[in-house]
């Protein structure tokens, strides 16, 4: 479908972290398929990564996806120069400074709104101020969000205090972060609606609850990652991979179906060496083949691994130090399970690829995503010991992961989970195809924006 108003112009403003930038690029590509022009607003260092990802997509996308940069006030916020993405923040103590720096983007963002006057702003949930900025210029602001899942929703979700992230329970130490989340919630309630990277069939109870209970407009348009069709597009998503994608696929081609475990904790989490050693041991003891993404580089040597590990694992395991072509790995038939921190993008990508999960949440809403995977959808199992290990310096012993690996890779329970997730993968694909639920929701969103622009 092409829209009746090809002049529609959307400003997309992702938070400065790969988990936010990647789905925003996908969303821009989706708009491009409808002939709708979009501009991604970001900082200079992120802009170069985004433009490479767009170059890899279809040529007709290039004409309708623009990138607009605004300077990032690193030094003003007490951050090192060039620290423009959450993954380059040198220590956790500086996370709040990073959030503070993003709040300083309000002024240049408003200047941009004045100059470009788009028909709509789709800004990240973390930019609570974007609702007021957009309304100053009479522009509707839509929030871009992960899943619908929030606690206290229908269904048999049991959350104990231990399941709830420290930033919620420990208000004293994290008041600023809690305030940020509260501001985001409040701004979301006042915004025009929410675009969600999920699909109706995955969490219909929650989608209905969200719309009916809160009375808000919401468009589930995902999984947006499914807009990437060829290998180049799937590999180049806002960061260059450390391994050549074809080399990685060739390695996987030598393995039997469902015989490889993919291990990754997303774009931000660096595990301490003691924890990495335990993970290595569980992979070795389990006897499973694996691809393991580690936030290390060649300079870090191999001291963080058990002695002789790489030699013993030759041919059995592939360690990627840096950035992996995640979607390509998940979609390969050799991959039989995904050890994940339950970041929403990773969770949804695993669903879309039909891969069962071993859940190991670390922060934020990852604990809720784990519940969806293990208790509601029953397409994964938790690493049980993770619940008790929240304190710095402690780590999850190797037997806990090994046990979970066996549950997901071998036996009847494993088979059941695999079958369930394959059905969901099919539903995900249908959702984004012509007349699927996400396809219809996306068209409805565009139509609504067209009507709004005509009435202004
Ligand atoms: N990703 C990737 N290669 C990597 C690590 C991450 O392609 O080596 C992608 C992954 O496919 C996902 C995103 O980065 O799209 C991570 O987002 P998620 O919400 O899962 O976690 P976050 O990094 O935000 O914690």
TrEMBL record:
GO terms for molecular function: UDP-glucosyltransferase activity. It comes from the Eukaryota. Its EC number is 2.4.1.-. The keyword tRNA processing does not apply. Pfam families: Glyco_transf_N, UDPGT. Gene3D superfamilies: Glycogen Phosphorylase B. Belongs to the UDP-glycosyltransferase family. Residues 10-224 form the Glycosyltransferase N-terminal domain. InterPro entries: Glyco_transf_N (IPR058980), UDP_glucos_trans (IPR002213), UDP_glycos_trans_CS (IPR035595). Keywords: Glycosyltransferase, Transferase. This is Glycosyltransferase. The keyword Transit peptide does not apply.
């Amino acid at each position: 479908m092409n829209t009746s108003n090809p002049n529609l112009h959307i400003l997309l403003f992702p938070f400065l972290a790969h988990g936010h930038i990647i789905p925003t690029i996908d969303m821009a590509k989706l708009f491009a398929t409808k002939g709708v022009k979009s501009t991604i607003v970001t900082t200079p260092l992120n802009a170069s990564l985004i433009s490479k990802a767009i170059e890899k997509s279809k040529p007709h996308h290039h004409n309708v996806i623009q990138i607009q940069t605004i300077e990032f006030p690193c030094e003003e916020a007490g951050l090192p120069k060039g620290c423009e993405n959450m993954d380059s923040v040198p220590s956790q103590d500086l996370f709040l400074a990073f959030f503070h720096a993003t709040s300083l983007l309000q002024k240049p963002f408003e200047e941009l709104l004045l100059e470009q006057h788009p028909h709509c702003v789709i800004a990240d949930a973390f930019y609570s101020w974007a609702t007021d900025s957009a309304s100053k210029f009479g522009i509707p602001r839509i929030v871009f969000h992960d899943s619908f899942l929030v606690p206290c929703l229908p269904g048999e979700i049991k959350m104990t205090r231990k399941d709830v992230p420290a930033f919620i329970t420990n208000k004293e130490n994290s008041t600023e972060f809690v305030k940020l989340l509260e501001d985001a919630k409040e701004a979301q309630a006042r915004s025009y609606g929410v675009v969600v990277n999920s699909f109706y069939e995955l969490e219909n109870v929650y989608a209905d609850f969200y719309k009916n209970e809160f009375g808000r407009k919401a468009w589930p348009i995902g999984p947006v990652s499914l807009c990437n069709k060829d290998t180049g597009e799937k590999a180049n998503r806002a960061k260059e991979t450390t391994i050549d994608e074809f080399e990685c696929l060739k390695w996987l081609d030598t393995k039997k179906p469902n015989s490889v475990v993919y291990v990754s904790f997303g774009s931000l989490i660096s595990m301490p060496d003691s924890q990495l050693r335990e993970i290595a041991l569980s992979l070795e003891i389990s006897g499973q083949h694996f691809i393991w993404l580690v936030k290390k580089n060649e300079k870090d040597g191999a001291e963080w691994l058990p002695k002789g590990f790489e030699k013993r694992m030759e041919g059995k395991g592939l360690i990627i130090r840096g950035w992996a072509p995640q979607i390509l790995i998940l979609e390969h038939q050799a991959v039989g399970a995904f050890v994940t921190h339950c970041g929403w993008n990773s969770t949804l990508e695993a669903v879309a690829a039909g891969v069962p999960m071993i859940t190991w949440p670390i922060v934020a809403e990852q604990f809720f995503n784990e519940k969806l995977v293990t208790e509601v959808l029953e397409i994964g199992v938790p690493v049980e010991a993770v619940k008790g290990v929240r304190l710095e310096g402690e780590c999850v012993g190797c037997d806990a992961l090994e046990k979970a690996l066996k549950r997901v890779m071998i036996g009847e329970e494993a088979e059941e989970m695999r079958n369930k997730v394959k059905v969901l993968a099919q539903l995900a694909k249908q959702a984004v195809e012509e007349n699927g639920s996400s396809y219809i929701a996306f068209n409805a969103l565009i139509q609504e924006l067209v009507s709004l622009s005509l009435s202004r």
